[in-house]
What we know:
InterPro entries: N_methyl_site (IPR012902), Pilin-like (IPR045584). The protein is an alpha+beta fold and 180 residues long. Helix content is 37%, strand content 24%.
Amino acid sequence: MKHAKFTVEGTCKQRGFSLFELLLVIIIISLLIYLGYDKYSPQMANAAEKMIEYQASTFSRAVSTINAQSKIDNKGYVEYGGDKNSRIYVNEFGWPANTNRTMSPKYYNQTPEECKQLWDMIFKNAPSSAIGYIDQKNKPDFKISSINARICRYELVRKQEGTYFFDYDLSTGNIVVSHP
């Protein structure tokens, strides 16, 4: 029921909206949401791809720098970031292997723990990461694993379609990015 207010002149001032006006506004808002979603959805898919490429690129630059520094210094380690307490031990090919002196830096026996050590050392403010089982409640950004004890895999865990990861080959220093 519409409420009307009569003025002194006898004309009626309407308060509120008619059903037609309300439906028209709902249709326009729905159309705007639909068009916005079409623009927004591909951007979100592209964001995961860009994130993994960015992390892989940063990791690759750090690994190359460590390799070059290890060849210059001719030691089995590099003091990363100029800090004597931040050592990264290199394997027989000069590629970063781990940060723990008691672990073997050989390229053929890499553990997930050593892969995580590299991740945490290379990225001083590293995105959150975990080894193995991922707790759905406290889900990290990246899952870290070792493939055939020769390759470190850093996989983006965020909810998305497909699998996004990059692999670090300890024998060659190559970084290979994979995404759908």
